[in-house]
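Following the same procedure, sequence and fold were stored together, as reproduced here.

>
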Amino acid sequence: MRASGGDKRSRKDGKDAAGDGKDNLSDTLAETFKPRRNRNARNGAAQGYHHSCSHESSNACEQPVLAHEGGVGAGLAWPLMLLPCERRSPAGTCGAPYDQPVRQLDLNADVGEGDPETDEALLRLVTSANVACGVHAGDAHSMRATVALAVHHRVAVGAHPGFKDREGFGRRPQQLTADEIRDLLLSQLGALDAIARAEGTTLHHVKPHGALYNQAETDPVLAVAIVAAIRAFDPTLRLVGRAGSAMQEAARAIRHPFTAEAFADRRYRADGTLLPRSEPAAVLTDPEEVARQVRSLVTDGEVLASDGSRVAVSFETLCVHGDTPGAATLARRIRQELGALGVSVCAPPSVSSGSRDFPRVDTIPR
């Protein structure tokens, strides 16, 4: 378990930030977002979602941003996205379903999985790092090196726990009891957290890896076990997962912080889930194809599915996998595309008041 003098305060703050039935992010995403195509983008700026920041010209974005002053999302520490239009912005710049363009997104990557060179390149481009915790991949040395790089580049550090399956890279399904899930996660979170603290930071989020993530998308029992294990370790740690998944439902049921994720380098199925890696073209490796998917996500709130249909996707963070061929090139192209759309990158702040945050708003990397 985490032990610190500020535990009580952190737990209280985490409860407050998670919400007491007011302005719950998961509720907002699941119940009020009804995406529609927006064809009113002007001058290349993304018009798809409400997500704004008043610090675009600064080197950091440290102040809370309210989605609607006094309205939905007021008081949240991270600006709400994906809200239907409630009012028009000045000069008629509102697209039909939304009132402001996307200005800011988190960009995350799975790292520490065996390719230090790629990790170093990715950590110059992303704002959140999902660090392998030595079970499906990595070890104490790789965890320390990856966290140190993340701290150096002011990237928020999160845990990327997976099944004990090095041979299958944590991507083969397993059936574990709730107690086994608890032990699996607590050991991995504890190991990474100890290293993070030694490097001068703390954990900001948890994103399950591989089969653990995929199974928890549709298995409510597993999803509940994951949320319970995270809360046993630290109830302020954000859970990262797909919007509309069983993980989001489990988090929402007890008002646990949840961040919805979209994938820049994966093909979607018509039901909004990811096309299995065993299927052709499940992983996007062409930088221009990835850029098109990012543009569609940001401007229209949807992706082109494997069957040719358009699928609505709610998200606050974009993922690029560290083991995707050419991952660093893809991340750089994503940053360029976001820059062209007028979108800067910034990690969401940690819910815990006692943690060290590294939020930032960057220019396009040169």
User: Anything to note?
Assistant: The two ends are 41 Å apart (CA to CA). The mean pLDDT is 76. The first strand starts at residue 104 and ends at 111.
